[in-house]
Structure formats: structure tokens, C-alpha cells
Design brief:
The chain is of the alpha+beta class. Helices cover about 35% and strands about 20% of the residues.
């Protein structure tokens, strides 16, 4: 993707020049990878008028998980340990004749900002804002392909777990097994900490696995994701363990499934973020579950597992085509458990078949 990386950098460069900055310092890891193809630990990217430099604190390790730098980007490795790549990048900008440097202030510590000011006194620092994050919202087909593969890996890992014996095993053990299976199937690693919740824990958002063991009749909710070439997807499913579901479990599951379907069906280019949230939220609210719902119904995914857009009641903005998002409503009943259903989809126009579902594990309420 060398041409695409160059085009991305040029768009940011144009934004900087319009704002009066001769150079830009990119320090958020996901933004560095988006523009340079790789983000070694601690590295920053200096965008100049004609030359772009990836400044690293140590030689590149060659780890595929950190990506492969675009060949058009020059690599500058600090001569010794302990230096700050951002400060070194500011020095390079000064040496190249820049008088203004745009930085990502919201991702920079006060200490680092002060260090830049003290070392590069000739530079005027300006704020780049969320310019790169805004570019990242709409994905190209290469990015979507990486997300599609990540989703396939997550689906495979979950499918294999469901074929194993679950009763008597702990939430923590199952979470670790899922993460191992992700790597076995080609993932860089888990996209986020895997959540496995059983019994009264089921349905809790971002539940941290415990030593509670799976029991007959439990709800079992699982939320996991795979990272592939830096791109991260998410899937969540809920099952019943070992027996025919109770009436209350079927009723609750059908309700959350209806809410999730409403959210998925609302995804379309031009749809307001808050309208997608409302489509799912009103189903649960009208059934008396408005209290305790998550603040968002879904969110964007990509080089980070939680990025723009946010599908929330107060979110402003509208969806574009080729924007991958999650739709993940859930209900948790204290002391009893609950249901979460979570998919990763790509917004597509109706002429192209509507939303593209990346995570395809069945949403039927299975008794395992």
C-alpha cells in the first residue's frame, strides 16, 4: 500500500500547510501506523515539506505485529537509549528549516510538550487536533480486508470453543483459551482483553473473567476480538449451558436480539449516529430496560478497537459508506445474568446490499 500511505501523508501535510505549519509531529501509535505503515514502540512520525521521517528509540525489531514501514519513509534511530523520539523529531524539523510544528496535543503529556518547547525554542507549536483520526474513519478496501480476516479468525476461535466441554471450567480459563486460539489462527493477538461471563455475571459490559465455574443452566456471554495487521474487530455472543433455556432466558435473549437487529438495519450512509443508537435503544427502553444501558450502542473499529464514530444518544454526525462499526446492545439483570450480542459490520449503501456483516457466528440461542 505504498501509494495509499503517501496519499494519507499528503492529506495531513495539506491540512498542516493550510493551517500555517511547515511540519507535523504524529505521536499517537495508531496514527503513526496509519500514515507510515508501522508503529514501533515509542516511535513518532515527522511529516516535513518533502521528507517524512519515522523516529525510533531503538532499531526496528521486524515483528509483524508492529507493521512494516513504507519504503518512502526515512528511518531515524536514536543513537542511544533513554532519548525521546518526539524531541529528536523536533530537532530534525528545526534543522530542516521549519518554524512551526503541528503536534497532537490531546495525545501528548504536559512533560513532553514542555520538553519540546525547551529544546526546540525556534519552533512555534500548534495543535493538529484530530486531523488524522478524521481521515481514519472511512476505510479503504485494503483496510476492510484486514478487518474481514480478523473477523474470520475470531469466528473460528469462538466456534472451536463451542465444540468443547464447558461445564466446570472457569471464566478465566475459557478467556485464556480463546486468546490462544486467536493466535493459533493467525491473529497478531487479541484485539482487547477477552471477556467471558457466566451465570449472574453474564451480560455485563467489559466483564473481567473470574474463577467462577460454568454451571448447568447458566447464561454464558463471550466478547472477543482479533487483531490482524493492526486492524481490530469485535464479536459478542450469549449462549445457555447444558439445558433447554428457561422462559425468562428466551424472552430476554429475543429482546436483545431484536434491539441488535434494529441497530444493524439502521446502518446506512447518511444515517445519524444517534439515530442508529436510538433504533436499538428504544427496543430495550420500551420493554422496561432503559436503566443501566451502556452509554453507547456501538463504535467504530480499525487500528484501535474503540474509535470514531460513537453510536450514542448525544453523538453528532452521520455515517459514511465504508465505515466499520460495532452494534452491541445488552441487558444485565443483577443477580440473574444477561445477554450481549455484538457484531462488527461495514456500512454499505443499499445498492451494494446494505451493511456488510463481518462476524458471522450464529446468533441463534444455542444450548451448549
Amino acid at each position: 500500500m505504498p501509494e495509499e500511505y503517501a496519499a494519507r501523508r499528503d492529506r495531513v501535510r495539506e491540512r498542516c500547510m493550510t493551517g500555517g505549519s511547515a511540519a507535523a509531529l504524529i505521536s499517537r501509535p495508531a496514527n503513526v501506523r496509519y500514515l507510515a505503515g508501522a508503529a514501533p514502540r515509542g516511535a513518532v512520525l515527522l511529516l516535513g515539506r518533502t521528507t517524512d521521517v519515522l523516529v525510533c528509540g531503538a532499531p526496528l525489531s521486524g515483528d509483524t505485529a508492529e507493521g512494516r514501514p513504507d519504503e518512502a519513509v526515512r528511518i531515524h534511530v536514536l543513537p542511544g537509549p533513554g532519548g525521546d523520539p518526539a524531541v529528536a523529531a523536533a530537532d530534525l524539523a528545526t534543522a530542516a528549516g521549519a518554524d512551526t510544528l503541528a503536534v497532537e496535543e490531546q495525545h501528548m503529556t504536559v512533560a513532553r510538550h514542555r520538553a519540546l518547547r525547551s529544546v526546540a525554542r525556534r519552533l512555534r507549536l500548534t495543535d493538529l487536533g484530530a486531523a488524522v483520526e478524521q481521515l481514519r474513519v472511512v476505510k479503504d478496501e485494503e483496510e476492510i480486508s484486514c478487518l474481514r480476516i480478523a473477523a474470520e479468525i475470531a469466528d473460528q476461535a469462538l466456534a472451536e470453543l463451542l465444540e468443547s466441554i464447558l461445564v466446570g471450567r472457569t471464566e478465566r480459563h475459557l478467556a485464556l483459551e480463546l486468546e490462544r486460539r486467536l493466535v493459533d489462527h493467525g491473529a497478531d493477538g487479541p484485539a482487547f482483553a477477552t471477556s467471558v461471563a457466566t451465570g449472574p455475571n453474564a451480560g455485563r459490559r467489559a466483564h473481567r473473567p473470574t474463577d467462577r465455574r460454568v454451571e448447568e443452566g447458566d447464561f454464558l456471554s463471550v466478547c472477543l476480538g482479533a487483531a490482524y495487521r493492526g486492524y481490530r474487530c469485535e464479536i459478542g455472543r450469549t449462549f445457555v449451558i447444558g439445558t433447554t433455556p428457561a422462559d425468562w432466558q428466551i424472552e430476554l435473549y429475543d429482546l436483545v436480539f431484536a434491539a441488535q437487529r434494529a441497530g444493524r438495519e439502521a446502518l446506512a450512509p447518511g444515517a445519524a449516529y444517534r439515530d442508529v443508537d436510538h433504533a436499538a435503544r428504544q427496543v430495550l427502553d420500551s420493554a422496561g430496560h432503559g436503566e443501566g444501558l451502556a452509554p453507547v450502542t456501538g463504535h467504530g473499529v480499525g487500528l484501535e478497537i474503540d474509535e470514531d464514530p460513537q453510536l450514542a444518544p448525544s453523538s453528532m454526525g452521520k455515517l459514511d459508506a465504508c465505515v466499520p462499526v460495532t452494534v452491541e446492545p445488552g441487558v444485565h439483570l443483577p443477580g440473574r445474568g444477561g445477554v450481549r450480542i455484538d457484531d462488527t459490520l461495514v456500512v454499505r449503501p443499499e445498492a451494494d446490499g446494505g451493511p456488510e456483516l463481518l462476524t458471522i457466528t450464529t446468533k441463534e440461542l444455542l444450548a451448549l
